[in-house]
Amino acid sequence: MRIENAARLGGLAALLAGGLLIISELLRLLPSGSLPFELSGSELAIYGWLGIDGYLGVLLAVLVQLGLVALYAPQARAAGVIGAVGFFIAFIGSRLAVGPSFINPFIEPPFGPLVVFAVSFVLGWVLVGVAMLRAQAYPRSAVVLLIAGALILLLPLPLSGAVFAAALAWIGYILFTGRSGGEALRPAHA
After folding, report:
1. β-strands 179-180, 183-184 pairing
2. Positive or negative, the Cα torsion across 67, 181, 165, 86?
3. Radius of gyration (Cα) for the chain, nearest Å?
4. pTM of the full predicted structure?
5. Tens digits of per-residue pLDDT, 96-125?
6. Where are the domains of the chain?
7. Between vectors from CA 104 to CA 103 and to CA 107, what angle results, nearest 5°?
């Protein structure tokens, strides 16, 4: 497989991850009694929401990580040490924070792990975003939205992840199509 095809597939992964994250955020808006049946927290942990949340959580974690690799790879040299550190933290944080996203609307996990997961996820993505700004491989507005969306994740607000999800999908779309607003995608500066 050619590198361009791998990057395009990674862009598609980021685009799909953004879409799944938006769906996850919308599920959080459901009132607690809106399901046609009642499940306890332990039943949800075993069976999942309609039996698919565990699979969607795993798929989402994989897509976010593949998307992160694809977004970072073209600009790795220009991203420098900040980009490498941010990539590592974001990769680990993505796995820790994203996996249970389809369960979280119904089960409140302990506060301590949430802090560790959120900080690693947010810090990693902010550092990756700063490295993307330095490398100038993606449109500035998309990267600024990614950084702002990652920081908004720290706020306990409804739909706080929607901004991050939209930015991830936007940059994934840019990488998938190879275009940014009618212009060809620029290679990162060395």
Report:
1. antiparallel
2. positive
3. 17
4. 0.78
5. 776 555 445 444 555 566 677 677 889 999
6. 3-30+41-179
7. 85
